[in-house]
Amino acid sequence: MTQDFYRPGTSLIHRWNPVTTLSLSLTLVVTAFASQALWLPAALLVFVVFPAALVSGVFRRLLAWLARFLLPVILLLFVIQGLYHQDGPLLDLGPVGVHLDGVLFATRTALRLLVLTGAFLLLLFTTHPGELMTALVAHGMPPKISYLVSATMQIVPAFRQRAHSILDAQRARGLRTAAGPIGRVRALVPLVGPLVLGALSEVDERAVAMEARAFGATTRRTSYTVIADSAAQRVSRWSMLVITIAVIVLSATGVIR
Amino acid sequence: MRPAAKIAAGTVVVLATYVYLVLERPGASGTGALVALAGYLLGSVLIGLGAVDRLSTSSVTLIPVAMAINIVVGQLALATGIPLYLDSIGIVIAGVLAGPAAGAATGVLTCVIWGLTANPTIMPFAVTAAEIGVAAGLIGMLGGFRKPWWAALAGLLTGVVSALVSAPISAFVYGGVTTSAGTTAITGAFQAYGASLFAATTLQGLLSDPLDKTVTFTVAFVILLALPARFRQRFAFARRYRVFATGVGSEGR
Amino acid sequence: MIRLESLSYRYAETPTTVLRQISLTIPKGQLVGVVGPSGAGKTTLAQVMSGFIPHVFGGEVTGAVTVAGRSVRNTPLPLLVSDIGLVSQNPFNQLSGAKFSVAEELAFGLENLGVPRGEMVSRVDETLRRLRIAHLAERSPYQLSGGQQQLVAIGSMMVMRPGVLVLDEPTSQLDPAGSGLVFDALGELRERGVTVVLIEHKLEQLAEVADRILALVDGELRMDGPPSTVLAADELADWGIGRTRFTAAAVAAATHWPCGRPLPVTLAEAAAGFAEGAP
Question: Which residues, 6 or more positions from A33, have their beta carbon under 8 angstroms from its beta carbon?
Fold first, then answer.
């Protein structure tokens, strides 16, 4: 279920400093949610997210994953909001009716969700998570956070493998994956117990290994990996920050509607 | 006390966002969405940063393991098809053993990692996960993990708060729709009876979250009970607030 | 370099004493092997000698422990570990998780100490070459075999150049070539004045490289001496530690072993003895 979203590449966006790509994603999301106008998120999608995906060679994957995450949500959104909105119906079909307000609302939410998810998928497709963390630490994020995120991402696959082997062992012993919700909860207990207890019992050894490698030291840290950056990228990051703040202020004060 | 100030500021931002959304009742189309998203994002970033600052190395190494537990058990629950999420057991364990800050950090980062590796649409709910971690820590401090029924009751209350906290995200960011057709239909039904979208997502949350968190807290209680006393007592937080009943556990004296 | 004075230890919330009244002094630059059956307290001893008991594990320590001239009890852990390295048993749990390549994983400790980048790169390269894992430098540490992970775990301590290095069964998942590499590297460290404490089951290799052997049984230090006496002792088999192939061969072929000659623990000693005993 966990995806390795990232694939190595050589495109312009792949070569960007990860913080630049992250800034772009956040700016896109905030802007998409700032205004009621339908054209704004649509324009961001068509003129920024999609071209960026094309440039970095991830367009088809982006569409596939957007469909996977959002298609069911968007369909439900139209059904529920289209039918249940408060004002007079656009189209009267006896007991149910299609409401203009609801359709507008559903369209707006759908476009925003497409920008939200698309912007983040773009980041994940083009940025190695380790490099994102290293770059964020270089920009002042506490190294502990980088450690927490990276370590979890690397432990999860190992734990999942253990869960599968426990599951297999229990199936081999004839434990059936029982029917009915209560039966299934009960089947989960002998699986979750050993997994969680085993995992927690390793915490001590991990703590020792981290201390032995001076993780608790208070000295100023240095970095082995150097992440490329450029003056142009620094300028664009600052501009995106200014745009984001401006958009939030203008929207909150009602200048943008 | 800079870390504490960050946590306090983050909590204030989250509460202010919530109060604004409740009092002003902005349309879900306009400012409501941006305020909900930006306020909760800023709040969870502040809480996450402040919480991590406070952690000792032992607590820091507990957290990735706790997060892996959340993710793997959550996926198992999903795969078994039971009607519970069970994706916050690790958050509760971290909060009870190492305190509210560790719980909050585990919650926020679980959402971030889940977003980075499986499904980016989950990230706006980071605040709810932080709330669960803080609640678990506070409940541990008050002795709620000394008896199973207290833990279950605490889970129920935490679930009520979770439902309230996540309702604005469900309403203003997702338009009341989730990937589950069942919960979406319930939200829609409440709206059909005249509830506003915000009220409908709140009511829907109140139907599912308390049950899920009751089960989660009970499972976490059982797991913590099964741990060797020597391990539980390794955490300064658990020792200082005497989180666990003495004389219970596999190696208790 | 390491000094224990009537040390006893008990984990928190447990009634059993894991280590009892252990006194010993290990001078700088000595390579000491520790042998003992499982459950004898070897891992606990390693954690005491590296300062993690009582700092990380808590529990009740009586007696005094001095490592690298510092009293373990009165020195804060970050200061203490700056000159002590510990390689524990399970390599998977020793990977930091913070890093996505072997080279970065080796550099992790140096980053935390604030070592300048230029020096960091040269130390990492040297360690990669020394342990012959340069071809793995860009691989993910989590996609390596257990043995390769063990080499990375050892390398990530060696790269920090501690004055005292404690290793808890560091070659359990390595093939003979791999463990030979590790033993050679440890021998080199000793030549450079590093104090090495090595918990190990591979008695033949230990006999070749160690200056001294400690036999730990039921939390007590039962024997302490050069490999030729400790590893040849009859009691070792009774304690469940076993004996080297060479000792076993000399015992089995007692008629060919010169009367009164001490039992062999290395290939050279065995060869010399059997040559003398041959008719």
Answer: A112, A116, B33, B34, B37, B38, B173
Question: Is A218 a domain residue?
Answer: no
Closest CA to B220 of B144, B127, B161, B165: B144
- Per-residue pLDDT, averaged over C85-98, amounts to 91
Using CA atoms, how far apart are residues C99 and C119, in angstroms rounded to an integer?
19
Q: How far apart are CA C166 and CA C68, in angstroms?
A: 13
Are residues A93 and A152 both part of a single domain? no
CB-CB: which of C94, C98, C112 is closest to A217? C112
Confirm or reject contact between A201 and chain C (CB < 8 A).
Answer: no
Measured between beta carbons, the chain A residues lying within 8 angstroms of C90 are 202, 205
CB contact under 8 A, B233 and C58: yes
Query: Under an 8 A CB cutoff, do B120 and A83 touch?
Result: no
Domain match, A96 and A154 both: no
Give the chain B residue whose CA is nearest to the CA of C95: B61
Q: Is the pLDDT of residue B30 over 70?
A: no
When pLDDT is cut at 50, 70 and 90, the band that residue B251 belongs to is very low
Note whether residue A132 is domain-resident.
Answer: no
Residue among C185, C177, C179 at smallest CA distance from C203:
C179
CA distances from A159 to B64, C93, C218 (A): 11, 12, 34
Mutate to test the interface with A, among B2, B20, B31 (most CBs of A within 10 A): B31
Check whether C146 has a pLDDT greater than 70: yes
Residue A2 reports pLDDT greater than 90: no
Mean pLDDT of chain C: 91
Residues forming a β-bridge with C2: C26, C67
Query: pLDDT digits over A122-152, tens only?
Result: 999 999 988 999 999 999 888 899 999 999 9
> Measured between CB atoms, does A70 come within 8 Å of chain B?
yes
Going from the N-terminus, what domains does chain B have, and what CATH number goes with each? 60-240 (1.10.1760.20)
pLDDT at B252: 36
Disruptive mutation site among C50, C86, C99, C127 for chain A (greatest number of A CBs within 10 Å): C99
> Would A136 be classed as within a structural domain?
no
What is the chain B residue with the closest CA to C52?
Answer: B58
Sign of the dihedral defined by the CA atoms of residues A40, B123, A216, A206, in that order = negative
Residues above pLDDT 90, as percent of chain C: 67
Residues of chain A in contact with residue B191, where contact means CB-CB under 8 angstroms, are: 80, 84
Per residue in A181-214, pLDDT (tens digit) is 677 667 777 778 888 888 888 888 888 899 899 8
Range of the domain at A87: 12-127+229-252
Is C96's CB within 8 Å of A214's CB? no
B123-180: pLDDT as tens digits: 888 889 999 999 999 999 999 999 999 999 999 999 999 999 999 888 888 888 876 7
Report pLDDT digits (tens) over C35-69: 999 889 999 999 999 888 888 777 888 999 998 88
Residues 76-95 of B with CB under 8 A from A: 76-77, 80-84, 89, 93
Residues A188 and A235 in one domain: no
Contact in structure between C41 and C18 (CB atoms under 8 Å): yes
User: Is the pLDDT score of A84 beyond 70?
Assistant: no
Chain A partners (3+ C-beta pairs within 8 A): B, C
Q: Which of A69, A251, A254 minimises the CB distance to B121?
A: A69
Spatial strand order of the sheet with C164-168 comes to: C84-87, C164-168, C195-199, C31-35, C212-217, C220-225
Count of domains forming chain A = 2
Interface test with C, best of B58, B233, B248 (most C CBs within 10 A): B233
**Cβ contacts of B229 on chain C, cutoff 8 Å:** 12-13
d(CA A245, CA A235): 16
Structure token digits, residue B241:
């607030």
Structure tokens at C22: 């252990």
